[in-house]
Each structure stands twice: as structure tokens, then as C-alpha cells.
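Worked example 3. Consider a protein that binds F0G.
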Amino acid sequence: MYSLKCIECGKEWGDDHYTCECGGLLEVRMNLDEIEVDFKLDGNNITVWKYKSLLPVKMDPVSLGEGGTPLYRAERLEKETGIRRIYIKHEGLNPSGSFKDRGMTVGVTKAMELGKRAVACASTGNTSASMAMYAAKAGMRAYVLLPAGKVALGKVAQALMHGAKVIAIKGNFDDALRIVREVCEKEGLYLLNSVNPFRPEGQKTIAYEVADEIGVPDRVCLPVGNAGNISAIYKGFRELVEIGLTESMPKMTGIQAEGAAPIYRAFVEGKDDVTPVKNPETIATAIRIGNPVNARKALKAVYDTKGLVEIVSDDEIIAAQKFLAAREGIGVEPASAASVAGLRKLAERGDISPDETVVCVVTGNLLKDPETVVRVCGEPVSVEASMEAVLNSIYNLV
Ligand code: F0G
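Given these inputs, the predicted complex is written out as C-alpha cells:
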């Protein structure tokens, strides 16, 4: 059905591995010639598990109803940018409020198949919330390492309430990932970061769903942090072409925050790997990552599809978050808005054609990060409990 191969040297490994002895990441290769694809791209019954024949698990999934997220047409954004068709894939409407649920339903199901009792991850927040939720459903213990003081409150709340052991380290995400990899190795915990080759397999269903609903767009635009998602979506579209269900590839377009942009720097210099950024910083804490583990895969996806990588400032991110929320009715967290901020910038500069059909993936829900919202929007107006006071406030008399 599939094999697990090193992306650098091609060596084959068994299920219970994440990296090769050469240091390369492992990737699932579905045996597409042998697989009987049992779904049609007809727009019906869209969920992650519609595509089970292309997912590397056998048992009944540990599922909470992930996938099948709305794909909205963003008409005001089209008008503003001059781009003919823009769709927004709202991944914030997954069960835990982010796209991570797609990877976790597959990753935790694989953990069950392997007989694991405990799972672990490092996270900027969403991975931990999702992992805690799916571990709860599966009846497994969950251990989470977070960069102290740099994770949005809603995400920490989720991980805590779903019963994970949450450990805040005095370091950044890159430190947390390095440590959790060592801990997992030593203690036999099952690592569920995107270095785990089964996680991206779930995330590739974003590509399947988009193709199912509107066919293959000209471009997919998304925020990039650890670079797992852009690599996974690329893989999904590539597989559909290999099977013969579709014919083209979208230009994979990654957007990074200005203060955490190692992949952008590599792209500008035409390199196939990154120089890590030591002290990454951005208001979009979800993508505050300086040493993305999937960088090589992501750069390949971009080069192979003649895509782009762009950077956006914190101000541009917040402006896009406000535009989506107040003009399109789509509530997302700051990192997610980076995709739209990047699209606006590329359109304004004339780097993308007005004739394109573009899908922006927005990755996490507005409710994840209420503290930033209050910071950028201010507190509600407070008035006496009377109609006069309310009317005065509405008409701005006081
Ligand atoms: N958007 C959101 C809301 C995220 O939480 C993340 C990553 C990304 C975009 C970037 O995705 O890492 O695949 O390039 N969050 C991870 C976490 C790192 O721990 O929750 P990526």
C-alpha cells in the first residue's frame, strides 16, 4: 500500500521511524499503481476520510469529524486586489479550530496501530491543542512542550483542558522541538510533530478537498512556519496528477512573517535549504519559527510549481486579519491572515496575474488568540445601563 522512504537517500524504513540514519526526513510513498481509488472528485461528502484509500492507515480512524471545511468565495478581496477568483479555505472550522486536526486524525490513528500509549509534541500552540484533543479521544497520554509566554491563550487552554501535560520551556519553538525529539527517542513516546511522516499525510487532504470542490486552482497561498503544511498540500496535488484524477499543479505560494522568514531568505537566494534565524519574532506566534524542519521539502514544492515565497509585516498581518473578519465575515488568527496579507502584496506588486484562481488557506480560528484581538481592537465601550447612554454611544455623542 505504501513505503516509508528517506527524502535524501531513498533508504526504506519501517513505520516506527521519523528520520533516516543520514539525517533526512522520511516520507510516505503511496503505491499509486496498486491502490484502488474508491472516491470521485464530485464535490460530495467531503471529509478527511473520504480519501482513506490514499491514506496510510488500515484501522478505523480516531476521528472527531475533521475536514470538509468551507471554501468561501471572497468577493470583496477580489475587488480590492483585482484578482478574478479568490477562495478562502477556512481550516479554523476544524474540530480543534485549526488545520492540524487533519494530520492528527491520521497521526493518532497510526499511534493506535503501533500500539502506542503516549504521544508528544513541541508546539507554537495549535499542534498541541489538536494532539491533546485526539489523544483524549484515543485514550492516550499527551505531553506538550511550548515556548513559555509565546503561545496564544486559547491554544494553551485547549491543551490543558483536554488533559495534556503542558510544559512551558524558557526557550523558543525550535528549542522545544529539539528537546521533545530527544525526549521521545529516550522515553519511547510517539512524536507527533510534522517530522512524523504520517502527519503530513492527513494534511495533504486539503489539496484533495480543494480539487474535489473547484478543481485545481492556479495558485495556493498559505502561511509557512515549520513548513509541513505547504509540503503536504503540494504532495496531495502531486498524487492526484500521478493517479490521473487531475492534470495540473497549483503554484505553491508560501507567506512568512518578516521576523521569522528563513524560507523566504533561501528562496530569494535560490537555495534549497535555509540558514536558521536565531531569534524569530512576530505577532503571529503560530509561525514564530526560525529553523523549519521541513524547509527542504517546502522549497522543492515552491521551485517545482514555479511558486513564490513572500514576507509580510505584523501590521500587514493585522490589517489582513481585520479585512477578513470585518469585510468577509471570516474570523482567523494572525498567522492565518498572513496568507491573505501576502496575496494582497503580490497582487499590488503585479507579481501574480489578475486572471488567476487563487485559494488562500487560512489555518486557525479567530478564537485561538483573543488577547491579540483586544490589543489591536481595544476593549468594548462601557456605558451606564440605560437606553440614553446606549444611544449616545451609538451616535458617538460621548
Ligand atoms: N498557521 C497556523 C495557525 C499554525 O498553527 C501553523 C503552525 C502554521 C500556520 C504553519 O504551518 O508549520 O506546517 O508551516 N503551527 C505549528 C504548531 C508549528 O505547533 O501549532 P507549518
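Take a moment to read the result before moving on. Residues 71-97+199-376 form a domain with the Rossmann fold fold (CATH 3.40.50.1100). The mean pLDDT is 97.
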